[in-house]
Amino acid sequence: MSDCIFCKIIKGEIPSTKIYEDDEFFAFKDLNPQAPIHTLVVPKKHITSLMDMEEADAPLMGRLLYRAQEIAKLQGLGEGGARFVFNCKGDAGQTVWHIHCHILGGKRLDDGFG
Ligand code: 5GP
Ligand code: ZN
């Protein structure tokens, strides 16, 4: 998608602080971190939101979860733990329409589900 900011980040057209990259996934620091560690993991394939994925995307999204927990451990969160979040559509506050998994950690997240 030519006007998607995360597609542009993946292609290097918008700068980001890269944490991890492979053939299928890209991970980078969130611009507006909500925790000491706040990383976004995206598939290179443009999918609009978790609730727009097709069944054919299920293996890709399974691998995304596996990578996300690996990336969390790479960032030192293996012992303390982390929160993995997908905001889907308007009521959940999704603002970027390219599916992404937030990894939040590095402190005790005592704020319920927020
Ligand atoms: P959402 O609310 O859609 O689940 O989360 C989108 C996230 O993307 C937000 O946490 C926001 O700070 C982050 N974000 C938006 N634009 C950019 C950007 O250009 N660069 C980076 N690194 N993060 C961004
Ligand atoms: Zn995109």
From TrEMBL:
<dbReference type="InterPro" id="IPR036265">
    <property type="entry name" value="HIT-like_sf"/>
</dbReference>
<dbReference type="GO" id="GO:0003824">
    <property type="term" value="F:catalytic activity"/>
</dbReference>
<dbReference type="InterPro" id="IPR011146">
    <property type="entry name" value="HIT-like"/>
</dbReference>
<feature type="active site" description="Tele-AMP-histidine intermediate">
    <location>
        <position position="100"/>
    </location>
</feature>
<dbReference type="InterPro" id="IPR001310">
    <property type="entry name" value="Histidine_triad_HIT"/>
</dbReference>
<feature type="domain" description="HIT">
    <location>
        <begin position="5"/>
        <end position="113"/>
    </location>
</feature>
<dbReference type="Pfam" id="PF01230">
    <property type="entry name" value="HIT"/>
</dbReference>
<feature type="short sequence motif" description="Histidine triad motif">
    <location>
        <begin position="98"/>
        <end position="102"/>
    </location>
</feature>
<protein>
    <submittedName>
        <fullName>Histidine triad (HIT) family protein</fullName>
    </submittedName>
</protein>
